[in-house]
User: Fold this.
Amino acid sequence: MNRPDPNSADQSANKDDDAVWQDLVARLEATQSAPDKPEPDVAEAGQPKPGAGKSFSDFDPLGLSAPSAVPSPDAAADEQGRRLGPRDFEVDDDEEPFVPEEPPSLAGTEPLTMLAWVGAVGGPIALLFTAMFWRSAPLAAILGIVAAFVASVVFLIMRLPQEKNEDDDGARI
Assistant:
């Protein structure tokens, strides 16, 4: 730590910091309070002072406190001259609304794939219900559920496509 101990014998560093702090506070209070005599806005060389006539509360480097006097070229205005934002416009929907296609029927699914999905989803659910309601389940039943789950997941992973089709980026229109 580089800070001096406040109880140490060498208090010169703390006194310097206190003096700088007091000077900063005094300058800020002087700029925020109304001065007895107005400061000239023009320095001796005829140039305006950088912060002349402004207080600390007027500091706005991004210009967000007051609206811009010059509208942007793409800004529209209504009859009263108010600027319009993105929510002031309505979208022209000339196209038909999007209707997703019907998902394929589960009745047409390959039976082995359907059984693998039942095992992959049903295995953890069966283990949860066994732990909650059938505490004295034999070890063979537990191992059978775990084996069915693992076999189902392995079957579904093996059914995944081996190669990626380079022409298909996944987007559908």
